[in-house]
# Entry
Amino acid sequence: MRHAPYLALVVILVVIAAVVKPASSEKQKYDYVGMQDCSKCHGTSALGNQVSVWLTTPHARAARVLRTERASLIAKKVNVSNPSEDPACLKCHTTGGGKNQKLSSEGVGCEACHGPASAYGEITNHAPYGDKEKDYLRAQSFGMYKIIGIDGIKLRERMCRRCHTLERPCAPENADERKHQELALSVIADFVFRHPLRK
# Structure
């Protein structure tokens, strides 16, 4: 029993070490800021006005379609009373999966693909200053998703197919239409080269 206090101390230290992790190993949590913030720079012609391009896409209309008659008909089939408020619908039709009330009406914006911009949204944290590769790595260190290169294609595939799947509640029933809506990896892989910022 002489060693009991030492044994107790060792057990306490082991428990503390298991519970408390060094700050450097913790993954930083970033928040979504919304298209308003992105448009401050990316809504200007100086950078190619990516926001105006986004506005012409189905992603920009993704939240609005939840308030249409067609959405109501689809929702009834899966026992959803209000698709514009239901988490199952908002998960794919809004940035942040419907968890951020501020973004619930903006559709699928920049941050859905690029990641929450609370840190990299600062111009000094992601603007290219000359060395694009280095600047891109800096942006990633502030939470921007890696979407370029082989690893980027894999990440984009996972991101896109979270929603663009034929198992989603609003997937078409018609076989031809289902085949037309399948999102092939080649489409996902090619998308980055057609991105409005990478002209």
Residues 32-114+146-194 form one domain.
